Amino acid sequence: MTVIPAFSRSAASLLCTLALLACVNTTARAEATRAAIDERVERLLTQMTVAEKIGQLAQVNADEGKMSAKLRAAVKAGMVGSVLNAVDVATVNELQRVAMQESRLGIPLLMGRDVIHGFKTVLPIPLGQAAAWNPDLVQQGARMAALEAAASGVNWTFAPMIDVSRDPRWGRIAESFGEDPHLVSVLGVASIRGFQGDDLTRPGAIAACAKHFVGYGASEGGRDYGFVGIPEIDLRNVYMPPFKAAVDAGVATFMTAFSDVNGVPASGNRFLMQTVLRDEWKFPGLVVSDWESILDMVVHGFAASEKDAAFEALSAGVDMEMASTTYRDHLPALLAEKRIDMATLDAAVRNVLRVKFRLGLFERTVTDPADYPPVASEQNLALAKKLTAQSLVLLQNRGAVLPLERQSLRSLAVIGPMADDDYEQLGTWIYDGDTALSRTPLQAIRDIVGPQVAVRHVRAMETTRSRTTTAFAEAVDAASRSDAAVLFLGEESILSGEAHSRADIDLPGNQMELVRAVRSAGKPVIVVILAGRPLTIEPILGDADAVVYAWHPGTMAGPAIADILFGVESPSGKLPVTFPRVVGQVPIYYAQRNTGKPPLPGTFLHIDDIKVRTSQTGLKNKSWYLDAGYEPLYPFGYGLSYTSFAYSDIAVTPSRARVGMPVQVRAVVTNVGKVEADEVAQLYVQDVVGSVTRPVRELKGFQRVRLEPGESREVSFQLTADDLAFYGRDMRRATEPGTFHAWIGGSSKAELRADFELTAD
Ligand code: NOJ
Question: Which residue has the least CA distance to atom 4 on ligand 1?
Answer without folding.
Answer: 290
